[in-house]
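Check this.
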Amino acid sequence: MPAEIDYCNASELLPHVMSEAEARGDRLDVLILDLSATSFMDSQGVRLINDIREGLRPGARVRLVARPDGVASRVLELTGMRRDVPVYDNLPEALAS
């Protein structure tokens, strides 16, 4: 995911992510969104994640990667998103889940 996710780019990211997910069809069981390089994220980033979750085929799950000390991790905590979507500290951890 990009360094910043906000009102300027969130709406452009959704079709891109969904296109990649749809290209995998029924083979997509887990989609990992790597936010470890995201240094700014506002509520539009949370909305983007929700829209992605709702747009995936039934049974497909979303996992997030966010640096524990990063802005994205803090936004996910403040909005309660961490309760709904598993968040991992790094990509290898998310891939192993």
Notes: The chain has a mean pLDDT of 94.
